[in-house]
Amino acid sequence: MAEVTLVEAVNLALVRAMEDDPDVVVLGEDVGINGGVFRATVGLQARFGPERVLDTPLAELLISGLCVGMAAQGLKPVGEIQFMGFLYPCIDQLVNHASRIRNRTQGRLTCPMVLRTPHGAGIRAPEHHSESTEAMLAHIPGLRVVIPSSPERAYGLLLAAIRDPDPVVFLEPTRIYRAAKGEVEDNGEALPLDVAFILREGRDITLISWGAMLKETMAAAEALAAEGIAAEVIDLATLKPYDEVTVLGSIAKTGRCVIVHEATRTGGFGAEIAALIAERGLTSLLAPVARVTGYDTVIPMARLEQKFMPSVGRIVAAARKACQFN
Amino acid sequence: MADGGLPVIARFEVRHRNYLAPDGSINRPLPAFASDASLLASLYRAMVLLRNFDRKAVALQRTGRLGTYAVSLGQEAVSVGIASAMREEDVLLPSYRDNGALIWRGVKLEEILLFWGGDERGNHFSGPVQDFPFCVPVGSQAPHAAGVAYAFKLRKQPRVAVCMFGDGATSKGDVYEAMNFAGVHKLPVVFVATNNQWAISVPLRLQTASETLAQKAIAAGFIGEQVDGSDVVAVRAAAEDAIAAARDGQGPRFIEALTYRLGDHTTSDDASRYRPEEEVQARWKEEPIARLRAFLARQKIWSKADEEQLAAECHERVEAAVERYLAAGPREAETMFDHLYADLPEVYVAQRRQLAGEGDG
């Protein structure tokens, strides 16, 4: 098995999906000869031709809208938006069309599309390149929102997303595109969607996160272990629909929970999980559910972005406080 | 203008097509299909049926049996003319005022009533199964049309996507983005702007400073043509040419159908608040149904008896559809979860049960 980076795993999954299924089409800005600004689509156009790997005009709404039309004809388009900050012109298409065309036509037309975009801060990118507004997407009925946190899950979940008969927004954690390395067997096997992954088992506290923040969350679990606190770490992976069973099962075991996301706090997806636990896990709770999140600010540019993002220290402190609560 | 002697590097033209004058006389030699009297009669029948259907739909809305409804009054020639030039295997991407096109394509009247009656079952066309349902957000179906046409091209299918929208939609980036892409890839798609002069209360002069909407195609690299949208012969002829060219691999076309919305925007609108009555009355003199009827009468292929028989047929067909619509019965609440996803994720099963009254959710 080869060790690959997360972005290379994305590329492997795209190649595999295109090999397996002639209906898979990759489209976006610079995805062709340039192989994508992060090189996720490198080599695809040479291999599959410019009709299946097409460079679109610079128009994000168009990319998402084309995907809807192609998907309604039974193609499996995989659109790329270069950065999440440029995804917003696609929201109209996602909310009003992609996510509901199956429902509004009572299954007559469907939308098996994937829209991929880098997610999150931490690469010293210019303004509008560091967004993590996954909660906005997770609010949309009929959509799937998936965020891998390792090369293995990037490969398996992207294959699942492409094969899924419904629209999926696939958010790729920019910060660990190359920093995360792992062995990926290119065997064409998908990982399940709608399922959370327990990355580390523990009895004392549950740490829930997704995407790049799992790096700090896992480091925090290590630090807590050194203090004698056994943290269970959950990679939520699919945010819409999300795996309530795994979350509640873990809370029933540990009684304490810290949710970690780099997106801003108010209305963030952590609030949804906290509400779930309050509604259906309250009797298990031994301490208030805590959130460690980005601040309710505009994501600052490079000089301050590290201050914005949750640190290992903030996660450890929140977990320690939860464990000391009685 | 060649300022300082600079050379002109490009010139463009926009053509306007019209055959029938408002009094039913002929302006120029008719296209070949116009020699087929039965086809002309079927176009006429479709327009009259649409007007009858509209009248009934408004009556249903006024009596609380239908939701908000958008009538086609005055622009029947556009949707009928366009749809009549399509083949069954082509795909229509309509806006919410294109009932005439849907009906021509085979969507049942009761399905259209179900849609406007607030029931998703209305979008489950019993045919044609690949056509899109009405697009309610203005113009956002244009990128879909480009995507559909791209699929046709990729699969080398001789099919054409036909995308209909109003004049207001041409102000949106969606429409330009789709046209631009369609031009780049020479896609088999025909864009049709029904220019009925009013986007709810906003007149065309506040919508655009363009002399025509047809010229918007020029920026996207293909032909834009203006037609008299109250002349169904002109609309159909333009659509035939554009669809044939698209099917032949010549790329997209744009048709601006110049017409007039004689009615309100929808049953929730009162156009008298923003639109002078004299303007509307003047436009009644140009409306498409009387125009074609006058032409058919001149040609001696339509009689008073034909008219009476058609009126009876339309009445019968519309009333029967209304009966079926009203008999469709309510839907169970939990069906709102049907077709949300291909398979309902386990996590939403409890919500569905709650709606069904089977759990405490």
TrEMBL record, chain A:
Name of the protein this chain belongs to: 2-oxoisovalerate dehydrogenase E1 component beta subunit
Swiss-Prot/TrEMBL cofactor(s): thiamine diphosphate
Domain of life: Bacteria
Residue span, Transketolase-like pyrimidine-binding domain: 4-179
Pfam families xref list: Transket_pyr, Transketolase_C
One function term, GO molecular function aspect: branched-chain 2-oxo acid dehydrogenase activity
Enzyme Commission number: 1.2.4.4
SMART domains linked: Transket_pyr
Entry-linked InterPro entries: THDP-binding, Transketo_C/PFOR_II, Transketolase-like_Pyr-bd, Transketolase_C
Keyword Transmembrane helix part of the UniProt annotation: no
Keywords tagged on the record: Oxidoreductase, Thiamine pyrophosphate
